[in-house]
Amino acid sequence: MNSQLHPTLTRRGFVKTGGALVVGFGLVGADIAQNIASAAVPKNTLDPTLPASWIEIHPDNTILIRTGKSDFGQGTTYTAYRQIVAEELSAKFEAITTVVAGDTDRTPDGSGAFDFLGRGTPNIRKAAAYTYQALLDLASQKLGVPKNKLTVKDGVVSGGARSISYGELVKGQQLRLTIPVMGDLLSPMGLTVAGNPPMKPVSQYTVIGKPFRNSVIASKVTAKEQWATDFRLPGMLHARMVHPKTLGSKLVSVGQLDKAKFPNAQVVVKNNLVGVVAPTEWEAIKASQQVAASTKWSDWKGLPGHENLFTYFREKADWTTTKVTKSDKSHGNVTPALASASKKFTATYEMPFLKHAPIGPTLAVADVRTDGTVHIYTHNQNPQALRGEMAQMLGIKPDNIIVRTFSGAGHYGRSNGGNCGAEDEAVILSKAVGKPVRVQWMRDEDFQWSTQSPAAYSDVKIGLDAKGRIEAYQIDHYMPAMQDDRPIGAVLAGLPTMAAPNEKAVFIGSTVNDNQDPWIYDGVQNLLENGHGTFQVGEHASPIAVGIRDHSMRTPGQFQQNFPRELAISEAASLAGVDTLQFRIDHATEERAIGVLKAVREASGWETRKSPRTNAAASSTTPLRGRGVSLMLRSGTYWACVCEVSVTPSTGAVKVERYTIAVDPGIVVNPLQLKRQVEGGAIMGTSAALLEETTFDESGITARDWRTYPIMKMADIPEIKVVLINNPKVGAYGGGSEAANALAAPAIAAAIFDATGKTPRRLPLKPEHVKKLFTA
Amino acid sequence: MAALSVNGVRREVQAPNDTPLLYVLRNELELSGPQFGCGLAQCGACSVLVDGKEIRSCITPISAVGGKEITTLEGLSARWAKQRGLSAADAAKTLHPVQEAWIEEQTPLCGFCQNGMMIKATELLESNPNATVAQIKDAFTNSGPSAHLCRCGSYTAIIEAVQRAGSAMAKGGK
Predict the structure, then answer these.
(1) Do B91 and B166 lie in a common domain?
(2) Which of A359, A442, A661 to mutate against chain B (most B CBs within 10 Å)?
């Protein structure tokens, strides 16, 4: 693909009229084909250099926007993106009536469902800013008024006592501006709009900051939304997969289909991939179960089992092939500072594999047509990357592949690299049977054959000086590769895929464990943060190169790094004999970090004192109360949370009673939607902290349903208080859809320490783990 | 071949009698409210009302619901209109107070579980429109075959929406 489509604002396609540059817009109902550039981009792709590929202004003054990002409940594309575009265009929010998101042939820029706000400058904002300038140029020409004498309000340009709406301005125009873009459309990061168009000053904002509603919610609650689960094609067959017995099994013999019972079903086998198709879903389910029962697989044992995981990591995993990384913020000389410290502290923290665990298992419809085109209908967080993977798998050009995305169950990063399980299998089966095929994974398959957020452990060393300040801090993070984007069906079928994660890959698919948790405590004199990476557990040992596959999940890598850091900071504060929240303030220098800590202190009614509390006890049959705090910087947003918990040492039971969180994202784009996102992250993070662990034995993942992988239930949620700090002077909007996930665990663990004097350093904080603290 | 009464309409279906109701609703009757979440009655995404009681359509064969009145998410508005005795014209532009509240509170995140959440809310509020937070938590966690699960963590927003809907229903709407 093109690494750089248009590095500068080129004049290709411009039409000059009276010396003024004017911009052209696609007409309502115009064929998409008209917008397809002849050379720079592949067929069935929208030309990102054309403004109309991003923003269409219609003669009736309605506006359509397009983004390659697909929405999975963040709501950003339907609220914040509309607000941002309306703001940059000085148009009304309500004027943006249509949002087209996440299709390969109908949206311009690709990339995944992450970093929606692009640290304040998402692609759609720049596209809007370029468009605004072109509109002013056009208006200047039409009204005969210099550009700098024009004013715009609610999509109406005024100057020289005359006014003209955007709709009137663009009517009948077929003129063009080229938007400069960089990057690779089919890569996980997609394209980036380049250049620096003038942006509206924050002081003039009127649309950003208001609590607009998410337009998709009404269609979802009235059953009018088109979900991926609803998609059907004429002649489509339903399929169920027969996945291997273990994560390293090869097919020995496929079971005989009982044609008397299932006369319309058909078995498809390709290498180790087995699927059963039938005209009705129920026949496909029953036939696949019948075939599965008599299909034979080789046995395989190549995993350490979850109970031996951390021993395996320490004693057997290869941490030497992959280069060790050092964070940018590391400075000073930790070793002598630790040696001379007044008080020292060392500890190890352990985090399990977590499942993304969408409420609906993955599914997709694929239609491999006789004309050589492949059409995929799915719920995917990165359709352009999926397109690239399917082109590689089939050995065809991306031009021939079209991916359409629909609403689906949130899966929190699992398909950000391009596939979430069923798409490639649907393509393989459709190609085999010559009909459209719908593959739906069952609940157990979604637990056992999908990727997970990698397990990790960290070693921390802290030295305090005579005044109780941190003089030296060293953390060594250990984690296997985080992102395996190989489509599993392609792997099982023996078809081409990208390489499994390895030490030579750059960024995505690398075994390198980068620093993901920006250091905030700049008052610390000597700092060393190391990242150690390794291969996926069992993948090299697996005869089919599967093993335990990993993928980024909300706050990827940072969840694994922030838990040890923040819990260790709380433990260091206790060693110093001071309040854990004030200790953080005393070591931070950034105003916004201190701001969120003070805000959460006030909102939670935090009592300043040392931890553990004076009446802390390690034995009790009744609940003891404690509180803890955590702090994080992610995607331009500062976060702090306080958890108040009750813990019963005799049983190990932990309940989070109250959860208070303060968030400073800079400019709050939409307080209503942000609050709901933060509440969701708070609950998901509390669920991960208390309950979640991907269990596995020597052969495969043993979590298979909601009983073996429990998540938080309504009765167990804490009382949640969200404090949003609108901080316009930051001048940018940070992200808010995922970071709350990471904050709960270190605050809850610190609260258990506060209540009992014992620190749980292994997640999850399940009764059996917590109880061991008090019996050891 | 079986006959089902769905959202007040009698429907003939072709599926064998052991077919779970969910697949018949989705594939034959093209009702997309109930979702496939687990097929094990462990999550609630597939819930529908049968004679006013919430059941899991993913494990309920159609043979078990013959002669009973099935209400899906699509039928909530009409159910409310009938309960309130609204005219056909008014019914057509009315949403169930539960749906209204879900929009008002901006409850769904991904929204995949919300079908079951709204069905559960309707079941609860029809018998107890003044449900307390404790009663709401209990209903969504302990009544029925399993707790209703939300992975995105919208429970707080659900509780707020149930309370809003309950007060609207107690007042007879809005």
Answers:
(1) yes
(2) A359
